[in-house]
Amino acid sequence: MRHLMSPLDFSVEELDQLLDLASDIEKHPEKYAHACDGKKLATLFYEPSTRTRLSFEAAMMNLGGNIFGFSSAESSSAAKGESVSDTIRMISCYADICAMRHPKEGAPMVASAVSSIPVINAGDGGHQHPTQTLTDLLTIRSLKGRLDNLTIGLCGDLKFGRTVHSLVRALARYKNITFIFISPEELKIPSYIKEDVLEAQGIPYQESERIEDVMPDLDILYMTRVQQERFFNEADYIRLKDFYILNNKKMKLAKEDMIVMHPLPRVNEISVEVDKDPRAAYFRQVQYGVYVRMALILTLLEVNLC
Amino acid sequence: MRHLMSPLDFSVEELDQLLDLASDIEKHPEKYAHACDGKKLATLFYEPSTRTRLSFEAAMMNLGGNIFGFSSAESSSAAKGESVSDTIRMISCYADICAMRHPKEGAPMVASAVSSIPVINAGDGGHQHPTQTLTDLLTIRSLKGRLDNLTIGLCGDLKFGRTVHSLVRALARYKNITFIFISPEELKIPSYIKEDVLEAQGIPYQESERIEDVMPDLDILYMTRVQQERFFNEADYIRLKDFYILNNKKMKLAKEDMIVMHPLPRVNEISVEVDKDPRAAYFRQVQYGVYVRMALILTLLEVNLC
Amino acid sequence: MRHLMSPLDFSVEELDQLLDLASDIEKHPEKYAHACDGKKLATLFYEPSTRTRLSFEAAMMNLGGNIFGFSSAESSSAAKGESVSDTIRMISCYADICAMRHPKEGAPMVASAVSSIPVINAGDGGHQHPTQTLTDLLTIRSLKGRLDNLTIGLCGDLKFGRTVHSLVRALARYKNITFIFISPEELKIPSYIKEDVLEAQGIPYQESERIEDVMPDLDILYMTRVQQERFFNEADYIRLKDFYILNNKKMKLAKEDMIVMHPLPRVNEISVEVDKDPRAAYFRQVQYGVYVRMALILTLLEVNLC
What we know:
The structure is a homotrimer of 306-residue chains. With 306 residues, chain A is an alpha/beta fold. Helices cover 38% and strands 15% of the residues of chain A. Chain A contains eleven helices and nine strands. A five-stranded parallel β-sheet of chain A has the order 7-6-5-8-9. In chain A, helix 1 crosses helix 11, helix 2 packs across helix 11 and helix 3 packs across helix 4. Chains in contact: A-B, A-C, B-C. Chains A and B meet through helix 2 and helix 11 of A and strand 2 and helix 3 of B.
């Protein structure tokens, strides 16, 4: 039995299979409409995340399966002092597969060690959020047609954003990827990512403080939120924040076939005027998130459709 | 694609069709038991309303469909600052139809403007609650056999009650309706309703401070809550509150075929002794609420059963 | 129509039938996978209890039925002052059966008096939790092969634990049961249980302050939590708490076929090292809880499978 803890749990070959399955689901959803009839997904959300929870639930229902669970810690047994290990042993008696979101890093890993059903890490603190990375990979492969030979700009809070770190590690496994990191000084990509992941493998990257300077080179622009509380002082925040707001003016500098991605929710780092640009891919990304979660559930449950 | 924002969105003819469908559902529920197989209703409740949420969910499950969503704002992405527009774009990727309850007037309208799935307004602040009005209309038509030629008394808080305002506007479209407004001075029906809706169309109405005075004339008595905090001073509240509590003694003054309605929840404005009176229709009203929501979901999803 | 308020609602013969049905469900789950197709269970939890709620929901989904409801009072109409009686009349229009958890003793009983659907008491304050007792009986019968001729040790908080009181009353109806009560002085089994239930029927029991003293005699050890706040002073708590922590050393004194049960959640009264002992039955107990709730739903809905 397999769990999903990190996006790197799958080899590149396994990932290809998963993404192939997701693409087939996109083309032929009716083929999969009863693939999980009678099966149950438990969503164990120790902190709220409507977006992720509903994506998993939509995925399971699209497969004909049932859903149940809890959406915040107050309504769970955790309030009575039960360990995650004991909770997952209980859930193993109730469900066929579960998705766990937890504020503490490693909680899903602890759960997977004693679980008798597949556990999917649906986000553990600032650590991992593997289904977001799978979503990003499927979006890129679907809209750009490939996962290699790409120049990808990552913009915003590159210091704390687990989404960005995971995506860099995941894309680093493909050929001829160039990373361009766009952020204020305070929110630069950590040196351990640059050294251990990129330099160690000879993967090219550059850093920039302004979107405009690098926009024409990008095949993909991956936007993330810049939170005011991350800055050391308000003056820096005010000086820099507009640099990281994407608008139509900046979009004019980009390639015609560039795509803009965002893990959402967005606050104001992408101006709503960009939504109508055909290169805005962030809402389509949500849809790919459902397909890839459907593929993941099928894979972990080892459901084979002839 | 259609949404439902206000009970007046449907013409009288369209409403007739909807109520006909609801009545057919009541008679032949089995015909509709799989009408929405594989479809998903998202209940997006930014404030709790168990009654309305469960009614929608029961309706969708009676049609064979699936349900998911959230039941309060804390467990939604709104806490992360996401706009209603962005949330509905996400939900459009997950669900086939949604019911939205929101404390802010107009939020469902904003959602409907960008949604790619039908949006049902399940109550927006003090503004609209169209499925309550549809429920009221179905209840009246089912139990009285008609929507015209009726004398309807509306009793309680007529100043702030959106349910009452909506019902008045909806019934004003039918022939030979007489309204009798029963309320304390402080909670009288607003003059814009009297002038713009009733007088403008020559619809007869009268106002009364006491149920007893008008009871014998009524075909329908529509009760609502009188909340103490609405009164300017406690003396008035104490003087008046009993006037607006329906009991068996007052019921003796009514016609034998009058019906008592109430949008529920009731607190104490209808004495529990009235529950056993065959004219008490407020719990049957709940059941009609399920049928009319089933009809509404089928209509908005354009499901046709041959 | 029947409800379930107390584990003693069923006669010993009816209970046998229920447990037989639960055992058949365990052996042939596929036979029951569509027994409740199109039916709806409402879980009305006025206080959170993830374990119990998810067990009911898993049970209903295993039968092909649908689930909905609320998981805490804040998201229910109770916040608007609606009575339990009115709420259940509403739910009767929505669901086919319901499970109610309520902090107030007797609330499910009040509901059952006006309900037109079966009501299951899923725990009412410190009063009753009948499906826990049914779970315990099924676990004992399944793992020990009988409900008579047993020596059962009940350990921990025997004063306040409703689970223990219910189980004593339920087992007292079978032949040749011996009870051994293991607790600190402050948390001894109440005298009304000893006098009214045991002595009145001539059922043998003994009391002990230490697990070790009685361990070799037990067929079943039923553990419960000892909460520090139950003690009169901290010195007593510190002196006694280790007496009531089950570990491998104490397990060495027990029979080879003894079983350890616990209603869960456990905090630290059973050391995790015991989990691997084949006599540890508390997680299997969770699974039996699903089977017995499936049998209960089928029984109350009077579903007959030919």
